[in-house]
Write a structure and sequence with these properties.
The protein has about 140 residues and is an alpha+beta fold. Helices cover about 25% and strands about 20% of the residues. The protein has helices at about 20-30, 60-65, 80-90, 115-120, and strands at about 35-40, 70-80, 95-100, 125-135. The protein has a 4-stranded mixed sheet. It is globular, with a radius of gyration of 15 Å.
């Protein structure tokens, strides 16, 4: 990436990364405190009996929406066909977020990940959702 691009830009002072299960964090956050949330290439839990562990889940949507400000963006990316179909189905059945069609190429301003690079190298097509919290 050219100098001054995303890969070399300084991190904003208000950026926080959480590398553990996000559910306890989302429960602890104040209401309407997040401007943007990223879920990039999560574990797809591909077996049907493990579907309850998927982060994009009907029971999780209320918790996620509670922590997000109206108009806030939730970015979701997955290369797994099972997770993609699940995400599309779960998002289509809810009323908390506006859900445009997912992109098939990484939108401008989205950070690349090593999981995305592995998916592309393996010939898989990621899907990128940019959903907005309804007011």
């Amino acid at each position: 990436m050219p100098e001054g691009g995303e890969a070399t830009a300084p991190l904003p002072g208000n950026l926080r990364l959480w590398d553990d299960d996000a559910r306890p964090l989302l429960r602890a956050l104040p209401e309407a405190c997040l401007d943007r949330l990223f879920l990039l290439f999560p574990d797809p839990w591909p077996k049907a009996r493990h579907a309850k562990r998927r982060f994009v889940h009907p029971e999780m949507l209320k918790l996620v929406a509670r922590a997000m400000k109206p108009g806030a963006e939730w970015r979701i990316a997955s290369d797994d066909p099972t997770y993609q179909a699940w995400t599309a189905e779960v998002l289509a059945a809810q009323t908390l977020f506006d859900v445009p069609e997912p992109a098939t190429t990484r939108p401008e301003g989205w950070p690349p990940t090593r999981y995305e690079a592995k998916a592309l190298a393996a010939g898989r097509t990621p899907r990128y959702w940019a959903v907005r919290r309804r007011g």
